[in-house]
Design brief:
It is built from twelve helices and 14 strands. The chain has helices spanning 14-24, 37-42, 78-83, 85-90, 92-97, 104-109, 112-118, 124-132, 149-152, 228-234, 241-254, 266-290; strands at 7-9, 28-31, 50-53, 63-65, 69-73, 135-140, 143-148, 153-155, 158-159, 166-173, 179-186, 196-204, 210-218, 225-226. The mean pLDDT is 97. The structure holds flavin-adenine dinucleotide. The site of flavin-adenine dinucleotide has 29 residues, from strand 2, helix 2, helix 7, helix 8 and strand 10.
């Protein structure tokens, strides 16, 4: 057997799952799609004593539309999110991004909650949730709390989710008529983890001034990074080519701290971050303007 020995539970309700996590505290790991956890266990990078399999919890698989946000259950498969008409209509940046995540076979099993809780700094969805300012509902056997995307990603493969908690729901704000969005990434082959990726969400007022801009970058640090300096360059401005260039430069120089590895040098990652920030902002602003 490749993984270390573990005990296995398949709870039939959320309450039962949360009780098991409370009972085994730091020794238990939730199993969602298994697309990251099982390989990590097979390599013995993860050696949980107990697996709490969430796959029988149909109550955590849903996409519900609301006035200001779409609520997505943590166990909703990535492929379901990708194909959802509600997501496409209400928060299209998510739909645009989904095909970049791995391959269809992996998205058939992988869940939205698993990707976000895993918090791989090279993963697409964490950067997108930062750009959209999503909220995260965390439940334990003793209560429920909501964490903003700014506070959710705390380090390398580390989030605000405590060992006794589950990420049960993601609140994804809907895209307004005056908002635009875009996602782009560069990877060696389609489906590979990206060398760098950028997700942008912007808003213009009636005069064409930028009132909001959130830019999430992936593969440029130990976690998905929000480009605050780049946003500051854009807010209150008419987004001309020069302004977008200045914002992209700020993103690449002030907002990220990429490292070199076998896939790319830090210098190359900064260059990609600049180019992709420029491209995504240009597309995002054009999308608002094209709606008039
Ligand atoms: C070949 C390959 C290529 C891939 N390429 C990409 C890629 O390009 N981009 C990308 O983003 N991803 C990629 N992935 C990862 C894939 O998207 C995974 O599906 C995802 O990272 C984890 O989701 P999962 O549902 O499989 O979670 P699991 O593997 O089951 O769990 C991952 C971690 O999250 C925890 N967890 C899961 N659900 C919850 C929850 N609801 N609450 C609290 N903790 C939870 C688990 O305990 C575990 O620690 C790839 C995977 C493979 C195998």
């Amino acid at each position: 057997m490749k993984p270390a020995a573990f005990d296995y539970y398949r709870p039939q309700s959320l309450d039962e799952a949360l009780s098991l996590l409370a009972q085994y505290a730091g020794d238990a790991k939730p199993l969602a799609g298994g697309q990251s956890l099982i390989p990590a266990m097979n390599f013995r990078l993860a050696t949980p004593a107990v697996l709490v399999d969430l796959n029988a919890l149909s109550e955590l698989s849903y996409i519900n539309d609301g006035p200001d946000a779409v609520r997505v259950g943590g166990m909703t498969r990535q492929r379901t999110v990708e194909r959802s008409a509600t997501i496409a209509a209400r928060t299209p940046l998510v739909t645009e991004t989904m095909p970049f995540i791995a391959h269809p076979a992996i998205r058939n099993r992988g869940t939205i909650g698993g990707s976000l809780a895993h918090a791989d700094p090279a993963a697409e969805l964490p950067a997108v949730m930062l750009a959209l300012n999503a909220g995260f509902t965390l439940r334990s056997s003793t209560g429920t709390r909501t964490v903003s995307s700014d506070d959710f990603f705390v380090g390398l493969f580390t989030t605000a989710v405590q060992p006794v908690e589950l990420l049960t729901e993601i609140l994804i704000p809907t895209t307004s008529a005056r908002s635009g969005y875009a996602f782009q990434e560069i990877s060696r082959r389609h489906g590979d983890f990206a060398l760098v990726g950028v997700a942008a969400s912007v808003t213009l007022d009636e005069q064409g001034l930028c009132t909001a801009a959130r830019i999430g970058l992936l593969s440029v640090g130990d976690r998905p990074m929000l480009a605050r300096h780049a946003s500051a360059v854009l807010i209150g401005q008419t987004p001309s080519a020069d302004t977008i260039e200045a914002a992209a430069t700020a993103a690449a120089t002030d907002d990220i701290d990429p490292s070199s590895d076998i896939h790319a040098s830090a210098k190359y990652r900064r260059q990609l971050a600049k180019v992709l920030t420029k491209r995504t902002l240009t597309v995002a602003f054009d999308r608002v303007r094209s709606r008039g």
